[in-house]
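Following up on my earlier thread - several people asked me to post the actual chain instead of describing it. Fair enough. Here it is, all 149 residues.
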Amino acid sequence: MNTHRALAPALRLAIAVTLAASGYIHARLYLDEYRFVHVVGALFLLQASASFAVAVLILIAAPLLLRAAAAGVALGALAGFTASRTVGVFGFTEHGLQPAPQALLSMVAETGTLLLVVVWQAAAIRQRRHARPQKDAPRRLRPGTITGH
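Reply from S.P.:
Thanks for posting it. Predicted structure:
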């Protein structure tokens, strides 16, 4: 069994777990605090829904498109977090790692998702590279084969 085939199921599960964790955190924050914040509340609900949906789909199958979606969901959450602490999001701003501990846990989950997707993509590229025949490698001929040269 090659390394990529052994690694893929573990990476699928790990990505699903980090996405689900991020989704859970955003859903709880929506229910507990943000559902009444104009526009931002809906964005928290959208983030939670997208995280859960991609987590489930990654468990079923994981083509490049879903891996990209996982990275996109994580990047979106991190971008929203950063924007809410710098320029604001629809007039809403926060400071530091508030609300604690959810802000930190969410950042860890989303960063974890990104790192896992990068590891998976690197492994996939490496596997494809090793699976291709080398252009400069000499061809092996079966005994008795005539090359025509």
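The chain has four helices and no strands. That should answer part of your original question.
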